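chain below, 284 aa
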Amino acid sequence: MIYISSTCIPSKNIKEAVLKLVQSGFFNIELSGGTDYYDGLQNDLIKLKEKYNINYIVHNYFPPPKKHFVLNLASLNDTVFYNSLNHCIQAIELAKAIHASYYGIHAGFLIDIHHSEIGKQLSKRSLFDKEKAIYRFVEAYRMLTDISGDLRVYIENNVFSYSNKQTYNVNPFLLTNSDEYFELKKIFDFRFLLDVAHLKVSSFTHEIDFIQEFQILSVVSDYWHLSGNNGRWDQNKSINEDHILLSTVNNCLFPNTITLEINEELETIKADYKYIEKTYLMHH
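prediction:
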């Protein structure tokens, strides 16, 4: 099944974003960050689902909290950690209420990022102790899966951009390449959400082969995020404009679930959707 991220619509109101996607012919929607909290959000999503027969999945920073922060389940700062954990618990509760099938969360960070730095070059900070941060992240994931029931909880690979390498000589993010995936897999079992765009950027930053990395990680994931970029940072561009990405994924076996995360005009998103749908149907 192919989903469209709610972030494809530049709106601070999730009801407005979902309505615009439905009116554009998209009924499989991944609810993600970028909108603001308001009372009645859950009821609106349920009403929209019932009216338009929408299939939802939920991603990371959704539902929006009353006060914005950067979610980090590996934080050694208790305030950040418990804010993040409580957010994820609320996300799971909402996902169950709207009958979502998946909830995907980003792997943790070895630093705490301020909300104002999202999408920008990070300022220099001391890194957390990696072993302790991983322990905390594993603890959080197990707590979330204990309450998830039939909802599938996934961990998504982070993006390590070229600009952040200029600040940090050591990678401050968990799970950005295949070695780090297998490192975590030795510690605990988890479902893996492969963000192919993240992997492309991280591979360029790590100076490792993106195609080889994709071939390794694509077969251990049944859920992908797709968008295009220039390899230096995550841009959420059109897939049809990213020839490296297209040549990499075209000849592989597509997973059961794909979400398009494209911040372009609706006509561009529709064209990308049709291309991926055609390729998807060839494999299913």
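Residues 2-283 form a domain with the TIM Barrel fold (CATH 3.20.20.150). The mean pLDDT is 94.
thats it, cya
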